[in-house]
Amino acid sequence: MGKKLVVDSSVLIILSRRGALEAYLTRRKGEGYEVLVPRAIVRELLVEPKRYAEGIKVKYPELASKIMQSVGRVNGAIQQGLIGVETVNYREYSKIMDNVRKRLSRLDAKPEHAVKKGDPELIILVIQLYDKFKEKIFVSTKDKSLIKILKLFSRRVEYGILNGP
Amino acid sequence: MAERTISILRAVGNPNKARVIAHLAKHKGETAEDLSKHLGYPLPTVYKYLRELEAARIVESEVKGNVRLYHVSDFKLVISPERLMRAFEGQSILDVYKSKYGDEGMKRLSELMAKVDDGKMTFRQAASTLGTTYYEFVSLLNEIGAIDG
Fold this sequence. Notes:
heterodimer, A: alpha/beta, 7 helices, B: mainly alpha, Arc Repressor Mutant, subunit A, 2 domains, globular
């Protein structure tokens, strides 16, 4: 069992667009990390960009093709098991989930139901993995606010931030 | 390939990073500590440069025993007006966004970027406020150069 590294879509999108995703995942694997993402963000990585590419392909065929290649790279990494997709246990973590949603909605001044799934799922996954393995969980994201929310749970979970790709 | 060209240009355009590349080309397989000592850059700065150079696939590393050794990858950058045109004038998500939302949209994007940078809003919240997908928003930040590394 390797060290657990929860990676946000921001990192994966940038790496795949730069064509550096596979090198990154191989490097992290070599360093002993198991790269994991919550199920909610798979949609952001595969479904949404595909739909976006289809919507622009008549006017911007070159860009649409580049986006599809980038989606293909992420999909390939998931299929090969270089990125593990984890399911968050909503039943077990419902209270914490509500708390995370509350914090996020306060940040944005929007109702809780408007909070996108990706942010709370990423934070809950870190907590869930820590509860399961009782070891430091590593997180990689480009999103400062997400780290800020995660810090609020630092008494409950031991985590480390991996900066940059 | 355009993004690769841009990431190489970004790396070699910084004289300090270019020195790291030059040094590694001459002295193959050095540690970050070696580089810090030989080039006189603070160790955290060396790590930052190496992370960025690895992300741009200009530098590779391998673990030997308990040390990480860095090497220069075999890369070649050919600059010509046509290549630069392809790299910088190719179709981008920013072009699509601009054509859809115009100057007003750019103003909103810049306001949200400031909020995201101040840690007042997550990327997902900003994307939702802007009316884009998360993928578009992150790509916009990347194309504008608002995300380092």
